Amino acid sequence: MRLQSILGVFLVLFLSGVQVHAFETKARAALVIDYATGTVLLEKNADVSMPPASMSKLMTLNMVFESLDDGRLTLDEKLPVSKHAMSYGGSTMFLNTRDRVRVEDLIRGVIILSGNDACVVLAEALAGSEPEFARAMTKRAKELGMTQSHFANANGWPDPGQRMSARDLVFLASRIIRKFPQYYKYFSETEFAFDGRSPANRFNRNPLLKLGVGADGLKTGHTKEAGYGVVGSAVRNGRRVVMMISGLKTSQDRATEAGKIINWAFRQFSQKKALKAGQVVGRAKVWLGTAKTVDVMVKSDVKLLLPVSVGSKLQASLQMVQPIAAPISKGQKLGVLKISIPDMRPVDVPVFAASDVKKAGFVGQLKLSARVLGRKILDLAN
Known about the structure:
This protein has helices at residues 57-69, 83-86, 103-112, 116-127, 130-143, 166-179, 181-184, 251-267, 362-381, and strands spanning 3-12, 29-34, 40-44, 78-80, 100-102, 215-223, 227-236, 239-248, 269-275, 280-287, 293-297, 302-307, 313-322, 324-325, 333-340, 347-353.
C-alpha cells in the first residue's frame, strides 16, 4: 500500500525582530523578485496582459542578442535605414535613409535613447519587415514560456496587439541578465550622443540609474494608455533584485515608486542558510529492502530569502510517497521538503536518499510478505 507521508519538521533560524511591512504600491501592475532564488517579494496584477510601451523593446533586444550569439549579426555590421524606420516619431535616434548604422550603435540607441527607429532597422535586418519580426517575437516569447506576450511591432508603439504582463517582463529581464552578460553592460550607460545628433536627447531615461540604489538596467516605457513604467534591476552586496512597475501617472511618480521598491526589497529581506549540504531532514519507509528505513537529506546548502521579521522558527513538511521500493541508490530523489514562510509562497526543496538500500533477498522478501499477509488476516478477523 502506497501512502502520502507528510512529516512535520522545524527549521530554526535566529533572525532580526524588525517588523517587515508589505509594500503598498501605487502602480497598476508590479512584480519584484530576488534574482538568485526567484522568490517573489511583491506582486500586483502580475499576470494581467497590458500595453508595455517601450518596455517591449526588451524583447527586440533579446532577439538581437540571440542573433549576435548565433552569428546572424555582428556588432560591427552596418545596417541601412528604411523609409518605414525613419517614419517613426516619439523617441528616436534621428536616423535617415542615407545612414548605415553599426549594430552596436543601434543597440545603444534602443537601450539609452529608446530609439523607435533603431528597433525597426534591427527588425528589418533580421526578418525582412517589422510585421514579420513582430510575428517572430510572439513565437519566440511563447517558446520561452511568456504566456501573456503578443507583439504587433518592434518598439512598443501603441497598438491593441502589443501586450505583455509584468511576470513576462521580469522573466525577460532576468533572462537578458543571465544569458547575455556581454551585452547587459549597455544598460548601465547613462548617455549616448550618436553622431552628435540632438545632444539634449542623449541621456538614458532609466531613473533608477540616478538614484544611487545600485541599479544597472533595464528599460522604461510610457504611452497614454500604459502610463509610466520601468523594468529595473539593482545589486547590493552581491544580491540582485529585478522589478517591474507600470501605470504610474507621471515620470516623477515612476522614479519615486521604483526607488522606494528597490530600497524596500533590499532592506526588508535577507538571505539565511536554513540547511547544510548533506543534512538529514527525516526518514522514509522502505519496501522489500535490506533496511526498513532510509535517511533523507538535502544535497546542497539551502538558502532562503526571508522577511527580517520571520521569527525564530519556520515550519516545514517532508512530502514523499511511501514506502519506497528497494533498491534505493544514495542520491536518489525521494520527494520534497516544503518550507512555509509567513506571507510568502512556500519553497520546495528536493530531498534525496542519504545511503544505498539493497533489495532484500528471496528469504527476506518471503518473511516480509508473510508479515504483511498476517496483518491483513488479523485486520479482516477484527
